[in-house]
Amino acid sequence: xxxxxxxxxxxxxxxxxxxxxxxxxxxxxxxxxxxxxxxxxxxxxxxxxxxxxxxxxxxxxxxxxxxxxxxxxxxxxxxxxxxxxxxxxxxxxxxxxxxxxxxxxxxxxxxxxxxxxxxxxxxxxxxxxxxxxxxxxxxxxxxxxxxxxxxxxxxxxxxxxxxxxxxxxxxxxxxxxxxxxxxxxxxxxxxxxxxxxxxxxxxxxxxxxxxxxxxxxxxxxxxxxxxxxxxxxxxxxxxxxxxxxxxxxxxxxxxxxxxxxxxxxxxxxxxxxxxxxxxxxxxxxxxxxxxxxxxxxxxxxxxxxxxxxxxxxxxxxxxxxxxxxxxxxxxxxxxxxxxxxxxxxxxxxxxxxxxxxxxxxxxxxxxx
Length: 368
Prior knowledge:
Blueprint: E1 4-7, H1 8-18, E2 23-26, H2 33-45, E3 49-52, H3 56-68, E4 73-77, H4 79-84, H5 86-95, E5 99-105, H6 121-125, E6 136-138, H7 143-160, E7 163-169, H8 170-174, E8 176-179, H9 213-233, E9 237-240, E10 247-250, H10 253-268, E11 273-278, E12 280-282, H11 286-293, E13 300-305, H12 311-319, E14 325-330, H13 338-349, E15 365-367
Parallel strand pairs: 2-3, 2-4, 4-5, 5-7, 6-7, 10-11, 10-13, 13-14
Antiparallel strand pairs: 1-8, 6-12, 9-11, 14-15
Helix pairs in contact: 1-2, 1-7, 3-5, 10-13, 11-12
């Protein structure tokens, strides 16, 4: 296989096709529309199912139906569209059917704009729908990683009969990079639990309704036990230049790409800084951050995000109160530049030597 120049949205879509996606239901919304457009031609070309629904609400319920029938199925959207899908997402979680959802995040709240953002962190990790559940959430930082994660997402969805989100901000969806696509997989057979017609087997039932507190609590206990297994086995992260780091930047996705450049620059100046990049936003690599905070060498953390500080709360819970955890964020579709992050790292090391921006500063920074 050789690398080719690929646009993020197109690469994600083609990776899903090659991972054996049998059905796609979606509704166009920038900045992920090219993903839907690619699926509209490729799925039909291969004799698979593609349908542009009349809304995101319709799309997620079509996904639910196809998943119950045992198909490898997915949808994609961007921030306001994911908000509209929340009820259906919760039904899917309550029915324990495997589904993959791609969220290419745009600026918000509200309709916001079509610029890149990381403002959906809480939406996908904390409030993906009502009830006590978590989807697995994977956050690539390169197009190659996004391609690789699509196959992983379908495999994890099948393994745990769960929802898996692949989240990227708009810049990753729109950029072009050299990347390698995987070979085409054969379509997997329908699982035995799916609704394929009774024929010569016991009746299957897929539902998310449990009349009575005891029955619903029993299901929730079972669900929490499964989530505990996922938390134990599916934590993913990147540790960059952390062997001797005294200061650690924590970032994901595009913000992590920028932070890595800042770390490389400061390393050349002899400053012992490293990068910790969560790849699974849920399960969050909490224990790994706790271990870093407790190693006796690290003196402080800088969290940088393209939002007002959503992952920040998870980092602070992991690190505790023993070490400073500072935050630097850009909002509304703005991407932090390496020089900005370098300044914030230097400020963490020596606060008296660096000027701080105000929380409502003219440049839209959040610094606290």
